[in-house]
Specification:
By secondary structure, the chain is an all-beta fold. Helix content is 1%, strand content 42%. Strands 28, 33, 34, 36, 37, 38 and 40 form a 7-stranded mixed beta sheet that branches. Strands 27, 29, 32, 35, 39 and 41 form a 6-stranded antiparallel beta sheet that branches. A hairpin with a 7-residue loop joins strand 60 and strand 61. The protein is globular. The relative contact order is 0.10.
Length: 765
């Protein structure tokens, strides 16, 4: 360390948190004096990947393709390249060393080690020993089976792609192994994408329909999605399931396929039955966007980000590449499968209905026989259309205002829990929802398309029964009551108060206009909408060209989400929801925030800038994606450059949120303008931790937080041992020495008291 400027090795420091020393120590102290034990490990290059395995084993690959192993939870590391046979014998175009690690979900002690050439390795015992797999080919992506540890999928580029030969074509092939890499079978050529399916024996892949020519010059419209039901053992069990499927994702909730359609647009299709059948995803309106990102919640809710055509490069950020440019999309939420909330066919009269002002009987409604029925009044009769008599139906006898018949039962219909509405009618039906009799209300199916919140325009139809079906609510403007707000009073500016979010509702029926005495209803149903239906969750959300979406789902806390949106002025602002996207609100700055540029006004209960604009806390939404079992997924886009710390939550530290951002009118894009914040109540309130962008992580079930400045040299780290209630700074390096931090990592299960602080002592890469 004394030879500053000469040492260019990456330094991995393990911080082991013990008991804090006497709090009376004044000023900045060394971390050791605070009870921390620090070990310094020199590696040959920057860290490329990290995997945690059982038995306190940590594996690290560096950018020089060297594999290191720790058997003591990161306290010490040693290279294991001497155990990897033929790891240094490759010739161009192949590379020596280790290119990737793939731990098994089915057996946590197993890991597949991908070499840079034709030789690879496996371990059955968390890296204590390695077995050589001489496949005779370089491989690309690797997919370990989630429940069968011996089964592996892998891709291979042809020799023409690698430049080994000038003969033949460049294409990608899919191989499968059933014996943990000992032998491999060529399954399919001209493969674009592949993954294990939802069921144990299923493989899903996309491939070009014509296996000829250079694959990467072909039209993606010739891609199809296929399904194998026996792990690619036989061709007879392979079926084409989606034509023109240009991309897919296998998730906990199903299989999603993006399908190329005419005009350069795409549609999304969804399967819930192991890719046997697909249904189109139903969005609130026709979509002309071309790219989707699928995001899963642990409770089965799926969010789909659909990119807008417009591209909004953030001004003043010369360091951002075109692949990192901010684009805009809308985020839609899937809907839980549907229980029946309300159903009535009027065979038992009006026992489930009330009139205005809670009157026992609707004043302008009565139950009658189907007017189109002939040959009997029961449901076994026939109507004039020959489709069966509807039996008893509801007749509206006169025109009403603000509804006539209201369901006695109420139910929840909101953006988080939308409803599927269906009914049959004759005449000119008006149907809506109210929170009383009528109270606040909105017409959602009506003959007037100018009605605010109308989902379905009904027409006058007297000669046949017509069915109406739609999902309510769909659009953001419909999340508030359209009428009845005047009863709540007005504020000082004269605007109506109390535009409350729609939640608990009653169904409302009415006859209207020219069909006052000839409007009928039957078979009224309210159910939870199908999972293929999607509703708007967040408009104008920010994303990037590689598919990263600025949406963070708080781990372990269903319904709590953080998202960034872009304004018409192309400024990014942060929002939070606690009800799965039904209502989004700005993040409140820390209560003790002292800044003349953003101050709290106790008279208005609002934060405002000097110019009167609304102030809030805005956060960067980079992710540390933690896969199973204990693997960090370093993604190659905007959060990977470490300019800003991630937004971090962990199910083992419930309610704890650590983030980087700033207080102001919008999100700033320079690291020097960022600060580190922490919340202990899932983002309802915040505290400022330190100035500048930082790298950090959570350990010991959320009780420990370790942070270090990651923009410029530092000698200090900041730590908390009480889940972010208090923080203390200490000096990590020796006196006079500096350290440039790249990242801070802890066991993804947050079970350890050890942290890896990754960086260099001279700023080298």
């Amino acid at each position: 360390l004394g030879m500053k400027g000469c040492l260019k090795h990456l330094v991995a420091v393990v911080v082991i948190l013990g008991m804090l020393a006497d709090g009376a120590l004044g000023g900045e102290v060394s971390c050791q004096r605070l009870g921390l034990r620090v070990s310094r490990v020199e590696l040959d290059a920057a860290v490329k990947d990290v995997v945690w395995l059982p038995g306190q084993v940590v594996l690290i690959i560096t950018k020089k393709n060297t594999l290191y192993r720790s058997a003591d939870d990161g306290r010490t590391f040693r290279t294991v390249m001497d155990q990897l046979e033929d790891s240094e014998t490759e010739e161009a175009p192949y590379k020596n060393g280790v290119m990737g690690m793939f731990p098994s979900d089915a057996d946590s002690k197993r890991v597949f080690i991908k070499g840079g050439g034709k030789v690879h390795w496996v371990s059955y015992d968390s890296g204590q020993s390695f077995h050589t797999r001489r496949m005779g080919m370089a491989i690309g992506d690797v997919k370990m089976h989630p429940s069968h540890p011996n089964c592996i999928l892998s891709s291979r580029l042809s020799d023409r792609c690698l430049g080994v030969t000038s003969i033949g074509f460049c294409y990608n092939s899919l191989y499968v192994s059933y014996d943990f890499g000992t032998s491999w079978k060529l399954a399919v050529s001209y493969v674009q994408q592949f993954d294990w399916g939802p069921h144990d024996e299923t493989v899903i892949y996309s491939a070009y329909e014509k296996a000829d020519g250079h694959q990467f010059l072909q039209d993606t419209g010739r891609l199809n999605v296929y399904r194998s039901t026996d792990m690619l053992k036989t061709e007879r069990n392979i079926r084409l399931v989606v034509h023109k499927g240009v991309g897919f994702k296998v998730s906990k909730s199903g299989v999603y396929v993006a399908v190329a359609s005419d005009g350069g647009t795409m549609e999304l299709f969804v399967s819930r039955d192991d890719a046997r059948s697909f249904l189109p995803a139903v969005f609130p309106q026709l979509l002309s966007q071309t790219r989707y990102t699928i995001m899963d919640q642990d409770d089965g809710t799926v969010f789909v980000s659909v990119e807008h055509p417009k591209n909004a490069q953030i001004e003043g950020d010369s360091t951002q590449s075109s692949s990192d440019s901010v684009t805009v999309g809308d985020i839609y939420a899937s809907i839980a499968d549907g229980e029946v909330l309300f159903q009535d066919n009027f065979e038992n009269g009006l026992s489930r209905w009330r009139g205005q002002h809670r009157s026992s009987v609707p004043s302008n409604s009565k139950v009658v026989d189907d007017p189109l029925c002939v040959g009997g009044t029961g449901r076994n009769g026939k109507d004039t259309e020959g489709t069966g008599c509807r039996g008893k139906v509801l007749k509206m006898q006169d025109c009403s205002a603000e509804g006539d018949a209201f369901s006695l039962e109420s139910f929840t219909c909101s953006v988080s829990f939308p409803c599927k509405v269906s009914f049959w009618f004759l005449g000119l039906a008006w149907q809506g929802f109210a929170d009383g009799y009528p109270g606040r209300h909105v017409w959602s199916a009506a003959g007037d398309d100018e009605e605010r919140g109308n989902h379905h325009k009904t027409a006058t139809i007297r000669d046949r029964w017509t069915r109406v079906e739609y999902v309510f609510p769909r659009k953001h403007s419909e999340f508030v009551w359209a009428e009845g707000g005047k009863k709540l009073g007005h504020d000082a500016s004269g605007e109506t108060r109390g535009r409350h979010v729609i939640s608990r509702v009653r169904m409302m029926l009415e006859a209207h206009s020219t069909s006052c005495n000839s409007t009928y209803f039957d078979d009224v149903r309210i159910t939870r909408a199908r999972t293929e239906d999607y509703v708007m969750a967040l408009r104008d959300s920010t994303r990037d060209n590689t598919g990263h979406v600025d949406l963070h789902m708080a781990r372990g806390l269903p319904g709590i989400l953080f998202g960034n949106v872009i304004t018409e002025e192309e400024e990014i602002r942060s929002l939070r929801t606690s009800d799965m996207g039904n209502e989004w609100l700005p993040l409140s700055p820390p209560t003790n925030w002292q800044d003349r540029h953003c101050q709290y006004n106790p008279h208005t209960s609002k934060w405002t800038s000097e110019g009167g604009e609304a102030c809030a806390l805005h956060l960067h939404m980079g992710h540390k994606i933690k896969g199973a079992p204990g693997r960090w997924e370093f993604r190659a886009h905007k959060e990977a450059d470490r300019r800003f710390g991630p937004l971090l939550t962990n199910e083992h530290g419930m309610g704890l949120v650590v983030a980087t951002g700033n207080v102001g009118t919008h999100l700033e894009q320079e690291p020097d303008e960022a600060e580190m914040f922490v919340s202990r109540d899932a983002g309802r309130s915040w505290s400022r931790v330190m100035e500048g962008s930082a790298a950090y992580d959570i350990g010991d079930q959320g009780s420990l937080i370790l942070a270090a400045r990651n923009h410029g040299p530092t000698s200090d780290v900041t730590l908390s041992v009480d889940s972010g209630a208090t923080f203390r700074m200490c000096q990590l390096t020796a006196e006079g020495e500096i350290f440039e931090v790249h990242d801070v990592l802890a066991d993804p299960n947050a079970s350890s008291t050890n942290f890896l602080v990754l960086g260099t002592d001279d700023g080298s890469e």
